[in-house]
Write a structure and sequence with these properties.
Chain lengths: ~475, ~425
């Protein structure tokens, strides 16, 4: 074949991680290892109330009795949980009041990542709550949000200032005993984001958090809690990049979304953590538990673009508890080199007239393994539930794998559940068609793959769509060899 | 050590079938050894997530070789023509069977006779493609009660259908038929398997079948499972396809207490075609589980799967179809479809169509739908004067028709229609 795809593919699959760099900031580190006294230390450092310490210790107790899940289609050396630092805070002079007070090294890091705070403040109207190794550094637009009664702050701040809200909702969607990693997170989470939208408020801007894993050998245990009160609306963005490391880094976040009656939450993620080098060395282990609960007439919409991490184990889910609740899941997962992804969603229909949509687009290249694993469960009382799932996989190169494991459990006859999946490489006839009309092969591939992922990319907010397209573009070329 | 063995549920059944086999050789002894290490699957095992089999150890099973005469006429496919081998409680009954003259070189006999007259042929085939780490396969392979031994030499077309007719007759009976079929290069055969019972009793049928499909051979297998409501059936098939061969199987499950079909198809030569169709109809508290696996090991093959389920009352169904495409199996085309209709409030379906693909130049897809009969279609028919039941029946018939039409053997199709008419009052003619 005359395609120069092979070279392109080579180039693409060998492309080094662009965002790999280490910021030199002194860190306040907890000793290596995990035990009850480390948890007490974390809790004490963060000046937490007694109930939260109890909650952490109980989680730790549960975690000790659990074993790591092994059912996923991923293979990796089991991390030694006693070899991590469970707490790392960048050293700073008190809390900064403006950007001038922020460590210039940190600001440089953000510049490299392309998130200039000033620019964000002025141009995009995005409020950014930046998390560098577990402690919030700067929060913008807080005042503006406060006017509307919206609370958007770091998790530790919320614990101090809104303990009643945190206590009421923490662990209600992802219980401590939910799974191994959720239990671990519940025991040792250091920080994260907290968001509360009051009744009837439509959040005027996209709320955004940039996560950064920074200190070597620190597990990052984020805890995010988003509560949308009755008839409110919020769009939440989460984006990730991580520096180059030789040691495998563990990330076990928990995200809980609560959409009360009539509320709508849009949660978008772009994940581009370090996937490891050509031999699969280094790279982030990403074991995330994300789940939302929908009350009556509410909507939760997950959109994710997953391009990074050596291991991705992630199933953003919706529990459609209320009547007329809607759950959505839009995902593009791209794996390259030796990356492994086992990702998908769970849609649990409990309420009447509930609807869910799943659109998953997998792209695997290099020697990677990309699996979709999803559950659609229609409970006995979920009258007139409706689900549509579409899971497509695109293969580039003959040494990668694409797998689909959908679970469909229906216990109510009024349900209508449809699932379809396809796996293929880009159709040569499609390329031929484009060639015939004067579009060269490279452009044709880009056109076809763009179209392939468009359904999902369209769901992303503007700022993210651009970043996501950029991330995907790297791998678009040379997909036919 | 003894204590742990006693605790294992599988060992109870192993004891029950001890010395019940019709022959023994090194392969059966090996299977028995493997069985000693295995237990009944726990629901935490992925392949048994939705199907409970632990209760099988609660009954004290016994093998029941009987010489009673039964009327088998309504179970017969092509009564005048076919070679019908009858297995009562898993044991071959020469007196009830009817064998016709076959083309030269074809051996059609039972397993016991084969072990006496063709031990070298039997040894070459027995256990060749079965997987003894599966507890029910090992259980069967250690003590095969009886079975069809069919050897078709190269370039022979067998015109007459070969039928395996199974009956279970007694309470607490365990039956373990084991069929061995070898179809030579360029040969052709049509098989029919019927599973029925004389009394509605608590019985357990654990059947295993192994089919080698030679190069460019054609094999068609129509399987009808219509045992009474007390009978548990675990039915495992291992199919090995060589290049350019075609294998078609229709699995029709109409009755039984708990039915588990495990169909393993391994495609080992280029340009093979594989067709799997299934229809399962549940009623009462029946549980029907269909597991299929098509393992594409080589390039340029085609497989197509279509399973349809109609679940009434408090019945439950499981569908787990797996298409496995290995790294070398480029240019594989594999399609999989599963449709389910729930006819009552208490019916349940768990569907898991899987694709596991390691090659890039493939076209694979699967689809799964679950729902009830289309309300608008029902309304349309009723607006045109059809009664509620006729309208439902018509839509059910339309839903099941593509699978029913794929049944090759006319008398099996008639059996199915008759059964659906009697049991569900659906007429599909």
């Amino acid at each position: 074949m005359a395609y120069k795809g092979d070279d392109l593919l080579e180039e693409v699959t060998n492309k080094d991680y662009e965002y790999g760099f280490v910021t030199d900031i002194e860190s306040d580190l907890a000793p290596v290892g995990l035990n009850a006294s480390i948890i007490r230390l974390i809790s004490q450092k963060k000046n937490e109330p007694e109930w939260l310490l109890e909650w952490r210790l109980k989680s730790f107790e549960l975690w000790q009795k659990m074993t790591e899940p092994e059912w996923a289609h991923i293979q990796y050396p089991r991390p030694d949980f006693q070899s991590f630092h469970y707490y790392a805070a960048p050293k700073q002079k008190k809390n900064p009041k403006s950007l001038d007070e922020v460590d210039p090294e940190l600001l440089k890091t953000f510049d490299k990542l392309g998130i200039s705070l000033d620019e964000q403040k002025k141009l995009t109207g995005v409020a950014v709550d930046i998390v560098v190794d577990s402690v919030s550094v700067a929060t913008t637009f807080k005042a503006k949000l406060a006017e509307l009664g919206i609370i958007f702050c770091s998790f530790s701040e919320a614990v101090q200032e809104h303990p009643q809200l945190v206590q009421k909702y923490l662990g209600t969607v992802v219980p401590r005993s939910d799974n191994f990693y959720a239990a671990l997170n519940s025991a040792v989470f250091t920080d994260g984001s907290f968001c509360y939208i009051p009744k009837g408020v439509r959040c005027p801007m996209e709320l955004s958090t940039y996560f950064r894993i920074n200190e070597a050998k620190t597990g990052q245990f984020e805890r995010t809690l988003v509560i949308a009160d009755e008839d409110s609306y919020v769009s939440y963005l989460e984006g990730c990049t991580a520096p180059m490391r030789d040691e495998n880094q563990l990330h076990a976040a928990v995200v809980e979304l609560i959409a009360l009656d009539g509320a709508e939450i849009k949660y978008s993620t772009v994940q581009n953590w370090y996937p490891g080098d050509d031999e699969g060395k280094g790279g982030v282990y990403n074991f995330v538990t994300k789940r939302g609960i929908c009350h009556n007439r509410s909507t939760i919409s997950w959109t994710q673009v997953e391009t990074g991490s050596a291991i991705t184990w992630k199933y953003p889910s919706c529990i459609l508890k209320g009547d007329h609740a809607v759950g959505e899941f839009f995902s593009v997962a791209l794996t390259n080199k030796l990356q492994q992804a086992d990702t998908g969603t769970k849609m649990i229909h409990i309420g009447k007239n509930t609807k869910s949509t799943i659109i998953s687009k997998g792209i695997s290249a290099g020697k990677s393994q990309n699996s979709y694993r999803g559950l659609v469960k229609i409970g006995k009382n979920a009258e007139n539930a409706r689900n549509f799932s579409q899971c497509d996989s695109l293969l580039m190169g003959d040494r990668c794998g694409a797998h689909t494991f959908p679970y469909i459990e229906v216990e109510n006859p009024s349900a209508q559940v449809e699932h379809e999946a396809t796996t293929s490489k880009i159709g040569e006839d499609q390329i031929f068609y484009c060639n015939q009309r004067g579009i060269d092969t490279e452009k044709a591939i880009s056109l076809i793959v763009n179209g392939y992922a468009k359904e999902v990319l369209n769901k992303l907010p503007m700022e993210f769509a651009v970043e996501a397209q950029k991330l995907l573009a790297i791998s678009l070329e040379g997909s036919v060899g | 050590m003894t204590a742990t063995l006693e605790m294992r549920k599988s060992q109870k059944i192993r004891e029950a079938v001890k010395n019940a086999g019709c022959f023994s050789n090194s392969a059966t002894r090996e299977a028995d050894q493997q069985l000693a290490e295995l237990d009944l699957p726990h629901f935490k095992a992925e392949a048994w997530k939705y199907t409970r089999v632990g209760y099988l150890a609660a009954t004290k099973w016994s093998a029941n070789p009987t010489s009673e005469i039964y009327d088998i006429s309504h179970w017969k496919a092509d009564p005048e023509e076919a070679n019908t081998l009858v297995f009562v409680n898993g044991y071959y009954r020469a007196d009830l069977s009817s064998l016709h003259e076959m083309p030269a070189g074809v051996i059609v006999t039972d397993l016991k006779t084969a072990s006496e007259y063709h031990p070298e042929l039997l040894e070459a085939q027995y256990g060749k493609h079965t997987v003894n780490t599966e507890v029910f396969t090992a259980l069967n392979a250690a003590q095969p009660f009886g079975g069809l031994f069919l050897y078709i030499p190269d370039h022979v077309v067998v015109e007459r259908t070969v039928q395996m007719l199974h009956l279970v007759t007694h309470e607490d009976t365990i039956a373990q038929p084991h069929h061995l079929i070898r179809v030579g290069e360029n040969a052709q055969v049509k098989l029919v398997g019927t599973f029925g019972s004389i009394n509605s009793c608590n019985a357990f049928v654990n059947s295993v079948m192994q089919i080698s499909v030679g190069k460019a051979a054609h094999v068609q297998y129509d399987k009808l499972q219509a045992e009474d409501e007390g009978i548990s059936h675990i039915c495992t098939e291992y199919v090995h396809q060589d290049a350019q061969s075609t294998f078609k199987i229709n699995t029709i499950t109409l009755n039984g207490k708990m039915i588990r079909n495990s169909l393993h198809i391994s495609v080992n030569g280029k340009h093979c075609e594989t067709y799997l169709n299934g229809l399962y109809v549940g009623k009462g508290r029946q549980h029907i589980d269909n597991h299929t696996q098509v393992d594409h090991r080589v390039p340029d093959c085609y497989s197509e799967e279509n399973y349809k389920g109609l679940m009434d009352e408090a019945s439950s169904a499981v569908f787990n179809g797996k298409v496995f495409v290995r790294q070398d199996a480029q240019k594989t085309n594999a399609f999989q479809n599963n449709g389910n209709i729930l006819l009552s409030r208490d019916a349940r379906v768990n569907s898991k169509p899987e694709l596991e693909i390691y090659a890039d130049d493939v076209k694979c897809s699967h689809g799964s739908t679950t729902g009830r009969l289309n309300e608008e279609a029902l309304f349309y028919l009723r607006a045109r004067g059809l009664g509620k039941h006729s309208a439902r029946r018509l839509l059910i018939a339309a839903f099941a028709s593509d699978v029913l039409e794929s049944i090759d053997n006319k008398s099996v199709r008639a059996m199915v229609n008759r059964y659906l008419q009697d049991r569900h009052n659906w007429s599909f003619d």
